[in-house]
Amino acid sequence: MTEFKYEGLDNLGQPQSGTANAPTQDAAVEALQRRGLTLTSIKAASESGGLMAALNNISFFGGASNRDIVLLSRQLATLFEAQVSALRIFRLLAEQAEKPFLRKALTDIGDDLQSGTSISKALSKHPKVFSDFYINMVRAGEESGKLDQTFLFLADYIDRSYELTGKAKNALVYPAFILLTFVSVMTLMLTVVIPKIGAILEGDGQALPFVTQVILDLSTFLTDYGIFILIALIVGGYFFYRYAQTTAGKFMMSRFKISLPYVGDLYQKLYLSRFADNMHVMLSSGISAVRSLEITATVIENQIYEAILLEALEGVKAGRSMSDTFSHYPKEIPSIMVQMLKIGEETGELGNILERMAKFYNREVNASVDTLVSLIEPALIVALAVGVGFLLAAVLLPIYNSTASI
Predict the structure, then answer these.
(1) Whether residues 108 and 208 fall in one domain
(2) Which of 38, 72, 142, 303 is deepest in the core (most CB within 10 A)?
(3) Which structural domain, as residue segments, surrounds residue 333?
(4) Which residues contact 361 (CB under 8 A, 6 or more apart)?
């Protein structure tokens, strides 16, 4: 059993707080709701989050993290479902917010609501917290009168999307750390340890094995020119970063990502999953196909797919179908998706088709990440073994030859 700390309102609207024991957070929420409480905050009492959780929860440049928005959306859904007024909801959440930036944003939204502004318009004044996708979903919820369902939709979507991209990124953290450690240790050995051993070996006057000579030459090169190589890498990295921020650079990086062997296939599935999920959520909320395509193009985070979606947008405006535009890009859009979209457009079930495609590509991304991790780890072990073995052979061979000649 896990202990959870909670804060909320009782049936009379009075603030309540305390702890509850349950096997999972969902179970704790259900138990507390059965007691008539409307929750505004709940988390594990011993929650430290760990390194990755802490990194995932960091908000840079005063923005809000995905975890903040997910929690906020669930709180909004719960309070709207409890028929608490919008003004009281945002005032209450502003008081509960831990981060100053988020607290100020919620306070400003409350002030705007008090002056008669709609929720979606008030949210739109805080682009660092709420994306265009989020704001349009809220606007659709206002029009349909189903804000509680909309915020639940948004929380589930953001949670699902973040989990998918987070898994792909986190899968590469361990291999990257091992590789960086290996490179650092090898560089230290070649610039500090090997030169001293090399001076001893060369002092014997015997012919050095080829492997040893290669290592000594590499060590000498790094010792003499290492600082220049480091400066060149830093300068080159800076200019590459600047170029990657330009339109041409973004297109180049976007194309490079989806063209990499195996990893490119993973990126493609990730972007297709994001497209299908976004479109399904917005179409299901009553947002038009034109507006859905426009918003999805801005959040897909790949210039190649953004260009394809914008072309599809113009096609839809001209009376053509999305599947017709997508069929011109067989490398980026698989034929199975084109055919499924065509069926959805013809039958009027496009939202349901996109939901199925989103689930399909979610599973594909998860499977691809698991396979990639299972391949990277043994490959790294082999590479590390070869590198260490080569270095040991370079040091031990001349010592062995010297001992054998005595």
Answers:
(1) no
(2) 72
(3) 171-406
(4) 269, 270, 272, 273, 276
28, part of any domain: no
CATH number of the domain enclosing 197: 1.20.81.30
Contact predicate 221/404, CB 8 Å: no
Would you say residue 358 lies in a domain? Answer: yes
- Furthest-apart CA atoms within the chain: distance in Å: 96
Torsion, Cα 262 267 268 269, to 10 degrees, reads: 90
Q: Give residue 50's pLDDT.
A: 41
In angstroms, the CA 73 to CA 148 distance is: 9
374 belongs to a structural domain: yes
DSSP 61: G
> Domain check: are 297 and 405 in the same one?
yes
**Residues 6 or more apart from 69 whose CB is under 8 A from it?**
129, 130, 134, 154, 158
d(C-alpha 40, C-alpha 14), whole Å = 12
Closest residue by Cα to residue 62 from 95, 26, 99, 94: 99
**Residue labelled with tokens 């919008």:** 86
pLDDT of 8 reads: 74
CA-angle at 66, arms to 62 and 72, nearest 5°: 90
What's the average pLDDT block by block, 10 residues per block, for the chain (406 residues)?
71 71 66 71 56 38 68 86 87 85 90 89 88 82 80 81 72 79 86 82 74 87 89 94 90 90 86 88 83 85 91 92 92 92 91 90 84 81 85 81 65
Domain boundary residue among 132, 158, 184?
158
- Residue that has been written with the tokens 């994306």 in this structure: 131
Question: Of 158, 184, 213, which residue sits at a domain end?
Answer: 158
The radius of gyration of the chain's CA atoms, rounded to the nearest angstrom, is: 28
Looking at 318-349, list the stretches that DSSP marks H as alpha helix, in order from N- to C-terminal side: 322-326, 335-347
pLDDT of residue 341: 92
Q: Are residues 349 and 222 in the same domain?
A: yes
202, 152: one domain? no
Distance from the first to the final alpha carbon of the chain = 70
d(CA 105, CA 134): 15
Spatial contact of 23 and 2, defined as CB atoms under 8 Å apart: yes
Instruction: Give me the count of residues in the chain.
Output: 406
